[in-house]
Amino acid sequence: MTINRREFIEGAGLVAGGVMAAGVLDAIPAEAGNLTVAPVQVTAVVNGQPRGMTVEPRTTLLDALREQLHLTGTKKGCDRGECGACTVLVQERRVLSCMSLAVMQEGKRITTIEGLQRDGKLHPLQAAFIQHDGFQCGFCTSGQIMSGVGLIEEARAGWPSAATADVTKPFTLADLTGAEIRERMSGNLCRCACYPNIVAAVSTAAAEV
Amino acid sequence: MHAFTISRVVDARNAIAMHDSDPRSAFIAGGTDLIGLMKDRATLPARLLDINGFPGMAAVDARPDGSLLIGALARMSDVAAHPVVRQRFPVITEGLLFAASGQLRNMASIGGNIMQRTRCAYFRDGDGLPCNKRAPGSGCSALHGLNRSHAIFGWSESCVATHPSDLAVALTALDATVHVRGLHGDRVIAFSEFHRLPGDTPEKDNVLERGDLIVGIEVPASVEARASHYLKVRDRQSYEFALVSTAAAVAIDGRTIQSVRLAMGGVAHRPWRLAAAETALRGLSLDDGPRLKATIATSFSDARTLAHNAFKVELAQRCALRALQTAGARV
Fold first, then answer.
1. Is the terminal CB of chain B with fewer CB neighbours within 10 Å at N or C?
2. Under CATH, what is the fold of the domain B226-328?
3. DSSP B130-190
4. Which CATH architecture has domain A5-115?
5. Residue pLDDT, tens place only, B235-290
6. Hey, what CATH topology would domain B5-53 get?
7. A-B contacts at Cβ under 8 angstroms
């Protein structure tokens, strides 16, 4: 089976030439772990600014944000997609950066906790977390807030949830009860168990945003 | 994670040829299952083929004949929120919303969802215990180990794992089909034949071969789909896999069942239709709980429990009953 390299997307694509080289493609190792992969250059729009990152294909978006761009507000909790501490927005949607490959983010708009404030003023959800004591140790907080920001937009767009009594009916922000917020925030764990205050903060911000 | 290369492919023909020619390659879309498997070293692909750039494969098409064509690259959250899916196929929306978390649903593709691998801890943990899915021929640690979450139908001595997808259960109930593009052209696979029972080859979850790419899922129009419901029973209320679940879809005349589809999750290596019960439930009243439950029980005569999961037989029957009655209330 011969693969024509021109049939790949190159250059403007997600993968730089080094990885695309025919030699690498043809030399698949018998065992994993002994493959040497050249670093790849990726550019994404992070918090409104184009930012270049040099990553291996296996580098997660989480590690790239923290170690390449020094945006350490995004936290590594479980690194397995279970705790939500690494939540960021990609193309305005909340996602888990620990389960995303940095190399797949070429050209994407990424928002981290560092990018929420506007002109020195906290995002309404950041302010609401302070107002409602939505955190104790603070380790999960950036993920909680990014998840809450995404959640409010999802609710505004009319998305139902598993807590919605009847998914066949329209959903509006007015239907965003405490039970709805708890269900929609279930992907974010807080070992200090600030959950009631987190729900209150999201509820307050949803009414303001 | 181990080292690998990644190539972005935007043409299905190329992706299929590459996947076929290289047994160490894997497609990646949302990556939510694949990256977890790689971190757990349950799969170690040398080359990822990023298929997210395929044109037109992320659409949800509600067709004039009432059927639905869901592109394989559509994200769980988009399908769940689609107005036609919500109104005419609520069991699909509910199956999606009761799975994973908001973040994961924004990432995970529909094609990847039905390709998810089991959550059996002996498969996932990689702590060196035997697992025939991880290392064929090594044995099954769950058979005589901790098997509370494992199968009660269709298991073999080789594997007692269950399939984790909620969506797959809903699609099985609705007689959906999987549209697959392969080396030798397109084909359509009935959902009930897509996932396999473990037999002697539990490492194969489904009937796909190298070079096969899921391009979409078709859900036929049906009267039953409108009155449908997904009920999931789990150890915690949210963000957890099913102990048992039921997708129910029903057509009724007054309170009398005309036809019904019941599929269960958490009980077998694939979504499990209660075929005998579906036939026997016709003509019964939705209000006759005891009779409905006794009839549902006829589909459990071939259940075989393990040391820790005997509770699933009763739980599953109650789950099926409540899902059926809730679906019936949607008419």
1. C
2. Enolase-like; domain 1 (3.30.390)
3. --TTTSTTS--SSTTS--TTS-SSS-BTTB------HHHHHHHHTT-EEEEEETTEEEEEE
4. Roll (3.10)
5. 999 999 999 999 999 999 999 999 999 999 999 999 999 999 999 999 999 999 99
6. 3.30.43
7. 166
